[in-house]
Amino acid sequence: MPLPVPLPVDLSGIRLDPAQGLARQLYRALRERILDGRLGGGTRLPASRDLARLLGISRNTVIRAFDQLYAEGYVEGRVGAGTYVAELAASARAAPLPAARPAASVALQRLQQHHLAEPLQGAPRAFRVGVPAFDLFPFETWARLSARFWRKPSPARLGYGDPAGDAQLRELIAAYLRNSRGLHCDPAQILVTCGAQQAISLCAQLLVEPGERVAIENPGYRAAAHAFAVAGAQLAGIPVDGEGLDTAALEAAGDCRLAYVTPSHQYPSGGTLSLARRLQLLDWAERHDAWIVEDDYDGEYRYSGTPLTPLAALDRQGRVLYVGTFGKIAFPALRLGYLVLPPALVEAFARRRALDMRHAEIGSQAVMAEFIAAGHFQRHIRRMRGAARSRRDALLAGWPQQVPGCAPLPIVEAGLHLCVRVDSLARERQLIALAAKVGVELNALSGYWLANSSEPVDRRAGLVLGFAAVPEAQIGAALQALRQAWAIPG
Ligand SMILES: Cc1ncc(COP(=O)(O)O)c(C=O)c1O
C-alpha cells in the first residue's frame, strides 16, 4: 500500500502488507526512521487521523503504533500539540540495528550466508511445497493415544532417556523399514531425530571437517546445502537429470568427503536414481573413502509399485547414512525423524546428540510408537498416498494446456510435488508474480540452485508445485485463478 500523497514529513517508502499486523508494521517503520535519523529529534509526526487516511488504515491502528513508540520513549506527546520525535541519546541513534552488526566469528559469518528462508506462515495454500495432506491426519486418534500416555506415564520413561531415542519407537522404525523398504537394520542403528533436517545437520557436524568438499545435487535441497556449508564444507554442485544425480559428473568433480542425495525422488526435479547409478555411487564412496547421506524424505509416496529399495539396503561397506522423516506422513511441525547409521557411527552420533539436546521429547516419541504399534501408521500412509494421488490428478487434469514459455507438465510417479521447466528467468518471475497476485503460491526452480552454479541462468528457470497441501476443490479454484492471472482461455 504506497502513500498516495506527500506528507509534511518524509514517510516515503512505508509499505504495509495488509496480510500482516498493521500497527506493528507501522511502529517498526517509524522506529527505524527515528533510529537512523531520517526523523530527527523534535520532528512533529502527522496527526493520527491524517496518517490513517493517507495509509488507508484505521486511526486506531495508527494510535496503537504511536502508543508503542511513546511507551518505548521514541516519541513524546504534547497534549493538544501533537506527537514529536524524542531527542534520543547519540548512542541510541548511532547504534546499528543488530542485523547490520558485523559477524563476530567465522561460524557467525557462515550463518549469515547460509540460512533458511523464513517459513511461509499460515494455513497452506495451493501449491505449497513440502507439505502433505495433513488436513487428513487422525487427530482424534493421536489425542486419545497422547492422553493415554500422559495419564499414567511409566516412571522409567520420565527421566533422562537414551540419546538415540525411545527404545520401543526405534524397534518399530526398524521393523517398518524392513517391511516397507527391504532395509534390514538393527534397532541399535536407529537414532531418533527432530525431523530430517536435524539428521542432515548431525551428518554435517560429525562427518565433515571445515574446508572438505561435499557433493550436493544441483538443483537440490538448499536446506541440506546450508547445513553442510555452515559446518564449513565447500559445496560441489553435481548436475542431475531424469535419472537423478549424474554419477559421471560426480567422478569428474574430484575428491569429496560426502555426497548428499535424494535417490528415490530427486528434490526438486523428480528423477529416480537408476540401479546402475546406485551401484556406481556406492562404488564411488568406497573408492574415495566417502560417506553417502541418503535423504528418503518422501519415499512413502509412490503411485505405481511399492517404495524403492534404498541405497542403504545395497550398502555392504557401511558408508550410507539413511535419513527418514515422519513429517511428510503426519505433519511437518511434529519434528520427528530418524537416521539409520552404519554400526561404526552409532555411538558417536548418540554422544553428539546428547550434547545438543540429550534426546527428543518423550511424548511424541511414545505416542508415535503407539500409533505405529496399533496399525494407525500403516493405515494412514495408505490414506495419505491415495489423497496425494488424487490431488496430483486434480492438478494434472486442470493445468492449462498451453502456458507460453512453460513446458508441459511431466508424468508424476512419486512424491508430493512436481517440477516444470520455464524457458527464461524473466518468464519464471513473471508467472510467479502474477500467480501471487491471485493468492497462488508457486516456487521458483531458480531458487534451488547453488549460488556458484555454472548453468546459464535461463536454464535454471522453472516452477516447483506442491500438489498435496490442499484438497481438490482448492486446487481447482487455484487453477481457475491462474488461468485468469495468466490470461489463458478456457
Ligand atoms: C528433500 C527434503 N529433505 C528433508 C526435508 C525436511 O524434512 P523435515 O521436516 O523432517 O526436517 C524436506 C522438506 O521439505 C525435503 O524436501
Concise structural overview:
This protein has 17 helices and 14 strands.
Characterise the protein shown here.
The protein has three domains: 22-98, Orthogonal Bundle (Arc Repressor Mutant, subunit A), CATH 1.10.10; 137-375, 3-Layer(aba) Sandwich (Aspartate Aminotransferase, domain 2), CATH 3.40.640.10; 379-485, Aspartate Aminotransferase, domain 1, CATH 3.90.1150.10. It has helices at residues 22-35, 48-55, 59-71, 90-94, 106-113, 139-151, 167-181, 195-207, 222-230, 247-252, 275-288, 311-314, 346-357, 362-373, 376-398, 425-437, 472-485, and strands at 44-45, 75-78, 82-85, 190-193, 213-218, 234-241, 244-245, 258-261, 291-295, 320-325, 337-340, 417-421, 443-444, 462-466. The chain is globular, with a radius of gyration of 26 Å. The protein contains 17 helices and 14 strands. α1 crosses α3 and α6 (139-151) crosses α14 (362-373). Residues 1-6 have low confidence and may be disordered. The longest helix has 23 residues, at 376-398. The strands form three sheets. Strands 4-11-10-9-8-5-6-7 form an eight-stranded mixed β-sheet, with helices on both faces. Strands 1-3-2 form a three-stranded antiparallel β-sheet, covered by helices on one side. The relative contact order is 0.11. Helix content is 40%, strand content 12%. The chain has 490 residues and is of the alpha/beta class.
